[in-house]
Design brief:
By secondary structure, this protein is of the alpha/beta class. The chain is 36% helix and 22% strand. The chain starts with a strand and ends with a helix.
């Protein structure tokens, strides 16, 4: 982790030090000229730096006979939202590392905001830590470009120490989730996910009450998980149904079940994906990574909720054993499902997981899944789709996401669209028509949540990043970890 301190006094210049300054667009020219002189102000204006969000202007100055890289970072005219505050810190670390700096001075004194000191510290610490992230496991040592930044001094309104510590814990779990999602499918198998969960339980054993149960194929057969096991039929990799539990030492406020889609590779089955669409399907377990790693941080932060992370892990492959179009499956609640698309497999695995979670007597159930391309069509690549008939739970989740800096938008669950899931030979089909595909997926899942306070989050866009944005490079983002922890707080 980085060494982070927060102060109101700018440190003296030093070798291998970079300065990043947040600049508001409202008084950008005046601020730049007053701070750095007319020549820099003119150069920034010539480069069309106006302080808009995402803009940068870099230069080098000599100060006390020491060369210092300076980066101006635009924040816009108003108090930046949580996501932008994380991004400013992230961009500052990236710029400092590109300059080879070991120390970063991040000046946030011009950043207004209503967030508490602890929350500002949390968000800034997350951004700083995530700025150091690289997935370079398979890159030769000579070609790796790790971050050079080791220490950060933040200038601004003092932040509570617990905010910084919380942000660093959250970022560490986000980065663990990114490692899982970025790992190739020949490494990150269902067995690997189970072993990862076992590693978390071992690491947490001395500080928290964390237990692990892994159901094997035979265990799932006894529970009647016909939908989940059908998806697993085509793979040589055995399915692993993972149940990780954290119990707080003090009185619990309730029981929260977090379910994550854990398809470690999705070929589409007999509804085979084209090669280009299959290329990113190692990331189809982004939901699993999020819930496992969120539980890790929840235990380290001692949240006052009993938390269950449930992952029905499998591959979706093609073989002589694979499930087929036209098959009829029976879920663990007795509902029958006709298969009209083997590439709509995630909802089948989640169906049995939702039934399993419902038997634990939860206060809330939330599922996270890279479920549908239709959600990306509806909301774009940065925003998750949220579906629930529980208005209070939805409001809690959306507010948590806004505070955490992770974008989400509510989609409806109209009963009328269940007509699209009707089957002539079973209780339902596993897909509806092309139109409203994200919504009919949510409606399908709702059939396995009777009597539960349940919320579904389709993270297909923000969890699998194809073009960098915010604090995310191409690849896995670890989306939902921060929002889950904000909800549990």
């Amino acid at each position: 982790m980085l060494t982070i301190d927060w102060t109101s006094e700018e440190p003296a210049p030093a070798a291998l030090q970079a300065l990043a300054v947040a600049v508001a667009s409202g008084d950008c020219p005046t601020t730049v000229e007053r701070r750095f002189g007319a020549a820099v102000g003119q150069a920034a204006a010539a480069a069309r730096f106006t302080g808009r969000p995402g803009e940068q202007f870099r230069f080098t100055r000599e100060r006390d006979q020491t060369l210092q890289t300076v980066v101006l970072l635009g924040i816009g005219p108003d108090a930046p939202p949580a996501g932008r505050l994380r991004s400013v810190a992230y961009e500052a670390v990236r710029a400092a590392s590109q300059a080879g700096a070991e120390q970063l001075v991040l000046d946030l004194r011009a950043v207004p905001g209503d967030a508490t000191a602890a929350q500002r510290g949390n968000l800034v610490a997350q951004g700083l830590e995530l700025g150091t992230y690289r997935y370079d496991r398979y890159i030769a040592e000579a070609r790796r470009k790790p971050s050079t930044v080791r220490r950060v001094t933040v200038l601004g309104e003092p932040a509570a120490a617990e905010g910084l510590s919380r942000g660093q814990h959250i970022a560490a779990s986000v980065m663990k989730a990114r490692d899982l999602v970025n790992g190739p499918a020949n490494l990150v198998t269902p067995t690997h996910l189970a072993e990862f969960a076992a590693g978390l339980a071992r690491d947490l054993a001395s500080t928290a009450d964390v237990t692990l149960k892994v159901l094997e194929r035979e265990d799932c057969e006894r529970l009647g998980m016909g939908c989940y096991l059908a998806v697993a039929l085509g793979s040589e990799q055995p399915p692993k149904f993972i149940h990780l539990t954290y119990t707080p030492k003090a009185a619990s406020k309730g029981r929260v079940c977090l379910i994550g889609k854990g398809v470690t590779f999705d070929s589409g089955g007999y509804s085979l994906k084209p090669s280009d669409a299959m290329m990113g399907m190692k990331m189809d377990m982004g939901g699993a990574a999020a819930v496992l790693c969120a539980l890790d941080a929840a235990a380290r932060l001692a949240v006052p909720w009993e938390v269950h992370a449930i992952v029905p892990a499998t591959e979706n492959m093609v073989s002589g054993k694979a499930y087929k179009l036209g098959d009829v499956l029976t879920a663990s609640n007795g509902k029958t499902v006709e298969i009209d698309n083997t590439d709509a497999e995630g909802r089948l695995t989640l169906a049995d997981a939702l039934v399993y979670a419902g038997k634990l007597g939860p206060t809330y159930i939330l599922d996270f899944a890279t479920l549908t391309g239709a959600c990306i069509v509806a909301l774009g690549p940065h925003i998750a789709g949220v579906m629930s008939k529980d208005d209070e739970l939805t409001a809690l989740w959306l507010a948590a996401g806004e505070r955490a800096g992770e974008d989400a938008w509510r989609l409806p669950l109209p009963e009328a669209l269940k007509e699209l899931l009707k089957s002539p030979i079973a209780d339902m089909r596993n897909t509806g028509d092309r139109g409203g595909g994200a919504i009919t997926a949510g409606l399908f899942l709702s059939e396995f949540t009777e009597g539960q306070r349940w919320l579904h989050v389709d993270i297909a866009g923000p969890a699998m990043v194809r073009k960098p944005f915010g604090v995310n490079d191409e690849g896995g983002s670890g989306y939902a970890v921060a929002s889950i922890l904000e909800l549990l707080r």
